[in-house]
Design a protein that fits this description.
This protein has 631 residues and is α/β, with parallel strands linked by helices.
Length: 631
């Protein structure tokens, strides 16, 4: 009995101390013999869950003479008065944040009246006691005002509903509750309501490599690992706010699923052994010679070559393409090559295609410039004539007849990251990256969550202390350097090369750019670090007894440069594909790779339209300061 009196006293003190704050919205009920939570709830016209929330011990046992806290009659109403409390039944997909915004209160206010929400999430069908709104009707309807805990937000370019919900740590449903008129899309410059605090900096993601995913009910890290093959650490590396656990409706950034073709499934084929269609092949070669602007004299020709690098590239490419046609004829393939001068003009390209007979053309190689090749593929799209872009590696306006023969930067990055991920076991991975390459750093972290990061100092360099703080003297250190800043690249190379001999260090990058050619960056030190990088082509040695090199030097008196070799590789591959099948589209085999002098080709369907070359090399500097094929 004494224990019961103490419990009543404590409960009474609690009610007295809280009475003024709650404005006497509660009363007590002494449990009588035979009463149950159900009968008491029915007596006061409230839900059982409300009693449980206010009296957690009542879930275990309801004792006679124990005192329960019960909402007073004024605390439960139909909700027509702005000062009334409400009884809310939780619906499917509702969240605490969304309910709080619906009733113009804070989530913490709801938790105070429903204490079990401090230790668990919402349950569908349960009833919650909702406190009165702290914003009166007049102020809530004032133009330009926001709800408690929210702010107005201006939509920026490239931002989506998924991205904004992710940025502020809410679900799409909660975003739509805050903005009932949101609609399907977002307009740049429009103003919406969002929480007053964000959980990440940016609402944008790299859509080429990542996707948004909305967490489903009862979905945890284990289920996502089964679904996407990503560990908990990998998911948290991309979504730091998920470290406290996944919640229904949470928006995650995840890597896009890679193509089903694995590296092990890819085989090298020799199309010379598959020549089956030897009928005449007509190829249109479109290059920017600008013959109308070139004078007749040899002296002026030489001046034109010096002033116009595009002309030099076109002539070199053309010389390699002619050699490819000769090699094809030696294999029994009949070739007619029609050459057109595009004059570096898209209007000239349009004029050539309009005036010339292209219906019987089997393939078009060129033009060189991106806008011109896009124009050609668009005009020839209806005829399904394949157009091969020889030299552009930028994102293009793809058509279903356009072939991008040069691997893009995205392909090179994907190739390098795949290699790093497959071979990183047992290695100490270190990323050195500046802010311009933050996207690449994120991609690496997603693939290798255990990677350590080093940020350059204020002046854009790294010191020996920065590296030694994260380096491991007992295992191999793989350092991935992401920057196009010569100062950062040179300082990193110098520091890494000068590390004590007990540190085994190898240097990588996703993009070997001009910074690595800077005079302060030593080739000897790069070789010492086994500098490894992705490349669209390999380098063939001058003394290689390749028939093409020998034939080219015999014909032109010099060895071919990379553009002449590219002209040969692209053209020879196109001719062999035409000769191996009745239709060139049938000769696109995603699991097969063709390899020539310096370039290789494996076309896959683009995410939009057309075909992209997914074949790339991984090279490294060896001790002889030459490039060695790693993969």
């Amino acid at each position: 009995m004494l224990k019961c009196l103490i419990y009543v006293s404590v409960t009474f003190l609690f009610m007295v101390s809280c009475g003024s704050a709650a404005q006497q919205q509660y009363k007590s009920h002494s449990v009588e013999k035979g009463e149950t939570v159900y009968s008491i709830a029915k007596q006061y016209n409230i839900s059982e869950e409300t009693i449980y929330n206010l009296n957690p011990d009542s879930r275990n046992e309801l004792k006679v003479n124990s005192v329960l806290i019960i909402p007073s009659n004024s605390a439960i109403s139909s909700g027509t008065n702005k000062n009334d409390y409400r009884d809310h039944r939780v619906k499917k997909k509702e969240t605490l944040y969304g309910i709080a915004q619906l009733y113009n209160v804070s989530a913490d206010d709801i938790k105070k009246l429903n204490k079990e929400l401090y230790s668990r999430g919402l349950r569908k069908g349960e009833r919650l006691l909702i406190p009165a709104s702290i914003v009166n009707q007049n102020s809530s309807s004032t133009s330009g005002s926001t709800l408690p805990g929210t702010q107005q937000y201006t939509v920026k370019p490239k931002e989506t509903k998924f991205g904004i919900a992710r940025k502020f740590g809410i679900s799409l449903t909660e975003l739509e509750v805050l903005n009932p008129d949101l609609g399907e899309g977002l307009k740049v410059g429009s103003t919406i309501i969002v929480p007053d605090q964000s959980v990440i900096e940016s609402a944008e993601i790299d859509e080429e490599n990542f996707q948004y995913y909305e967490v489903k009910p009862k979905e945890g890290f284990y289920r996502l690992k089964i679904k996407f093959g990503l560990s908990e650490e990998e998911i948290i590396a991309l979504n730091p706010y998920a470290k406290d656990g996944l919640k229904e409706g949470m928006i995650l950034k995840l890597p896009k699923e890679e193509a089903t073709i694995s590296q092990d499934d890819i085989s090298v084929i020799n199309l010379e052994n598959r020549i089956d269609n030897k009928k005449m092949k007509t190829v249109a070669l479109m290059l920017p010679f600008r013959l109308m602007r070139t004078a007749d004299s040899t002296q002026n020709d030489q001046e034109s070559l010096k002033k116009d690098p595009t002309l030099r590239v076109a002539l070199d490419f053309y010389s390699g393409a002619l050699m490819a046609a000769e090699f094809a004829k030696d294999k029994g393939i009949s070739v007619t090559m029609n050459v057109y001068d595009t004059e570096k003009s898209d209007s000239k390209v349009a004029s050539i295609i309009s005036k010339s007979e292209f219906k019987n053309v089997d393939a078009v190689i060129g033009p060189l410039l991106q806008k011109n090749v896009e124009k050609a593929s668009e005009m020839l799209r209806s005829e399904k004539i394949p157009v091969f872009s020889p030299l552009s590696n930028r994102d293009m306006a793809m058509n279903d007849n356009l072939f991008q023969t040069l691997p893009t930067d995205a392909v090179l990055q994907k190739t390098m990251i795949r290699y790093l991920r497959q071979h990183s076991s047992g290695k100490n991975i270190i990323i050195i990256s500046d802010t311009k390459r933050a996207k690449q750093r994120e991609m690496i972290q997603a693939a290798i969550p255990t990677a350590k990061t080093v940020s350059p100092r204020g002046s854009g360099y790294v010191s020996a202390n920065d590296i030694s703080a994260v380096a491991d003297g007992t295992s191999e250190n793989w350092v991935i350097l992401e920057s196009d800043n010569p100062v950062l690249v040179s300082s990193a190379v110098n520091v890494l090369a000068a590390m004590p001999s007990n540190y085994k260090i190898r240097l990588f990058t996703l993009n070997r750019n001009e910074a690595y050619e800077w005079h302060e960056v030593s080739s000897t030190r790069l070789a010492k670090l086994n500098f490894t990088f992705p490349s669209v082509n390999k380098n063939i040695a001058e003394d290689d007894p390749n028939p093409f090199l020998i034939s080219y030097k015999n014909k032109y008196g010099v060895l071919p440069n990379r553009y002449a070799i590219r002209g040969f590789d692209v053209t020879y591959d196109v001719l062999l594909r035409l000769a191996s099948e009745k239709d060139i589209y049938d000769a696109i085999l995603p699991e097969s790779e063709t390899v020539y002098i310096e370039n290789k080709f494996r076309y896959e369907k683009s995410n939009t339209e057309g075909y992209c070359n997914e074949a790339a090399y991984i090279l490294k500097y060896n001790d002889d300061l030459k490039f060695e094929i790693v993969e």
